[in-house]
Design goal:
Elements (H helix, E strand, L loop, with lengths): L4 H18 L3 H15 L5 H6 L12 H13 L3 H9 L4 H4 L7 H11 L4 H9 L11 H12 L7 E2 H16 L4 E6 L1 H4 L4 E2 L1 E8 L2 H9 L4 E7 L3 E6 L4 E6 L5 H9 L2 H13 L3 E3 L2 E4 L2 E4 L3 H7 L15 H6 L14 E5 L10 H10 L4 E4 L14 H16 L5 E9 L10 H4 L4 E5 L8 H13 L3 E4 L17 H11 L2 E5 L9 H9 L4 E4 L11 H10 L13 H8 L2
Parallel strand pairs: 4-7, 11-12, 12-13, 13-14, 14-15, 15-16, 16-17
Antiparallel strand pairs: 1-3, 2-4, 5-6, 6-7, 8-9, 9-10
This protein binds 2'-deoxyguanosine-5'-triphosphate and calcium ion (2 copies).
């Protein structure tokens, strides 16, 4: 049975961890971890890539060996190396290593100091409060571990990109059935939240049992949780739960509003209806027993005196008041994007040459990209020093001379060092079209030190954009401590811009931070941080996040034509 990206990523990550625990070649362990992140963050499913005969070695950091292994995992559902590694460790240590926060050091402490070999022994130790007796096993770690031990296996929330993979395939499968009308995804997925708890699907169908039967027959279903003529719930192999509801066509709009949510948005709408003496539920908008709207969302909103509210805004964050005065923002959309301002090539840790990235961007209808490889401090990425960067700019000049209709901007993703100075001298930065600055180290500084550090970087007039400003990796690493209010204020004062990094595990700035930046007049770049041509397709997730942040085309740098963009990049 074929596996999904999340599951493949988990196996690769665990392999990296076990290799590290064994203490072998650290680069090998790191390569697996990195491959896990790449696979986990892909815009397309590995299954699709393999089916289309795509060369997996084009993905960043994936060589022949890893490509073969990933293909084997994806097609057989098993990973022999991982099984072997688990087998080589005593007891359940292989599974214990997969728990959150358990790395090689803590695993060794658990084994040496507490004699833990099995999950049962670990549970007993945690319940008896013995973890905190060992330095390094108490505090937050103990709390997190207890939670993880209580929870059934598998992640409880899924990244949007992962659910999109599942949803695309599943919706196509359901639509293929006979006698089916609309089949639409609702819930947090339709609101484009960065993570999704479960997937809600609405359908109209002649026979509710039949479409439910078809869902149950889907190849990735492992468990049926409920089955009836109006509702079928299943669990997929990845652990994702799917709720399918069959509704009459006359109620589709009302049901879409209800099941798209959010709950807070729904409650506010219902209060609005009640004030007019009406009733709103998933079947329609009713005046006494008479349905006055229900077949489309537009009709329901209109009857309530509201403009149509895009799903991304339905969080009860002021959208209803704005819809009442017809002053909702005209949200940015993918079609507004004219270029990508954060892109890597194989000069640092990207997978392909500059020309390939440029061609891929052009094929997506863009007029420009900014090449922003890493700077020297990030040695592991083969970051550029002054000499290589100036050779790269020559290369870009040569490539640009070949094309009238497309421009490669010369840029760098320069490291912000611990003290807030930049990793390359001003003399070279001055020669670039744009400088993207980012924190890649010392995530552990105090909020004050981290904030000061980034503001100091923005003090450098060559810096145009701060990339992934909070450093979070969704589900993996929290944002570093930083005072976002002060950062936004400083950016506004300096004419510096922030990035919404579109990588599905970053989405950094988040929706709320983006909205706060907009309120302060700070402009944003929506950038993919692509390390391969396919990575450019992450743009849509960045746009989703921006829409959730009430962002309009005018708030975004890369909706501009090149001359206007150049002006904004100059400080
Ligand atoms: P999730 O799945 O945790 O990412 O978030 P949602 O928003 O998809 O939530 P879910 O799956 O529990 O329910 C789907 C939608 O159904 C939710 O957005 C709003 C609606 N809904 C669920 N429970 C209630 C409720 O008690 N009252 C109202 N008014 N709506 C509800
Ligand atoms: Ca849901
Ligand atoms: Ca649900």
């Amino acid at each position: 049975m074929p596996l999904h990206n999340v599951e493949i990523a988990k196996m690769l990550d665990q392999t990296g961890e076990l290799l590290e625990i064994q203490g072998g070649n650290p680069f090998r362990a790191r390569a697996y971890r990195r491959a896990a992140r790449v696979v986990g963050g892909l815009g397309k499913s590995i299954q699709t890539l393999i089916a289309a005969d795509k060369d997996l070695t084009e993905l960043p950091g994936i060589g022949d060996d890893l490509a073969a292994k990933i293909t084997a995992i994806a097609t057989t559902g098993r990973f022999d190396l991982l099984e072997q590694l688990k087998h080589e460790l005593p007891g359940d240590l292989g599974d214990i290593a997969a728990l959150p926060g358990v790395g090689p050091k803590r695993l060794k402490l658990l084994y040496d100091r507490l004699g833990v070999r099995t999950l049962d022994e670990l549970r007993r130790c945690a319940a008896a409060g013995r973890l905190r007796d060992v330095k390094g096993l108490g505090g937050k770690f103990e709390i997190r571990l207890r939670e993880a031990l209580q929870k059934p296996a598998g992640p409880s929330r899924f990244r949007l990109s992962v659910v999109e993979d599942e949803a695309d395939a599943l919706l196509a499968f359901l639509r293929d059935a006979g006698g089916v009308g609309a089949v639409v995804a609702a819930g947090s997925f339709r609101r484009r939240r960065e993570t999704v708890g479960d997937l809600d699907i609405l359908a109209t169908a002649r026979d509710g049992w039949k479409i439910g039967d078809r869902l149950i027959a889907y190849e990735n279903v492992v468990k049926t949780l409920a089955h009836g003529p109006m509702r079928t719930s299943v669990e997929l192999r990845s652990g994702l739960q799917v709720d399918l509801r069959v509704v009459p066509a006359a109620s589709l709009g009302a049901a879409l509003i209800y099941f798209t949510g959010s709950k807070a948005h729904n409650l506010a709408l219902r209060r609005l209806a009640q004030r007019r003496g009406w009733k709103l539920n998933e079947y329609g908008l009713f005046d006494q027993d008479h349905r006055i709207a229900g077949s489309t969302e537009q009709a329901v909103y209109r009857k309530l005196g509201l403009s149509y509210i895009p799903s991304e805004l339905r969080e009860d964050r002021g959208e209803i008041a704005a819809a009442r005065t017809h002053s909702l923002p005209a949200l940015v959309s993918l079609a507004d994007i004219r270029g990508d301002l954060h892109v890597h090539s194989n000069w640092s840790d990207g997978a392909v040459p500059i020309a390939v990235m440029a061609e891929a961007a052009r094929a997506r209808g863009y007029g420009y990209i900014a090449l922003t490889d890493h700077s020297q401090h990030l040695a592991i990425t083969h970051g550029l020093d002054v000499e290589r960067l100036s050779r790269q700019t020559d290369e870009i000049d040569r490539l640009n001379a070949r094309r009238e209709d497309f421009t490669i901007l010369k840029g760098i993703e320069v490291d912000i060092l611990t003290d807030g100075t930049l990793d390359l001298p001003d003399s070279i930065l001055a020669r670039l079209d744009l400088v993207v600055a980012a924190v890649h180290s010392r995530f552990d500084l105090s909020a004050k030190a981290q904030t000061d550090r980034i503001i100091r970087a923005m003090d450098n007039p060559h810096v145009s954009i701060v990339a992934h400003p909070t450093g979070r990796l969704i589900g993996d690493r929290d944002a570093y401590a930083v005072d976002m209010e002060r950062l936004i204020e400083a950016a506004a004062g300096h004419g510096c811009h922030f990035e919404i990094n579109a990588e599905p595990d970053r989405l950094d700035l988040s929706d709320l931070h983006a909205r706060a930046a907009k309120a302060a007049g700070v402009k944003l770049a929506i950038s993919t941080d692509a390390h391969s041509a396919d990575g450019l397709d992450f743009m849509r997730f960045g746009v989703d996040q921006a829409r959730r942040g009430w962002i309009e085309p005018g708030d975004i740098l890369n909706t501009r034509q090149l001359p206007a963009l150049r002006k904004l990049l100059k400080r």
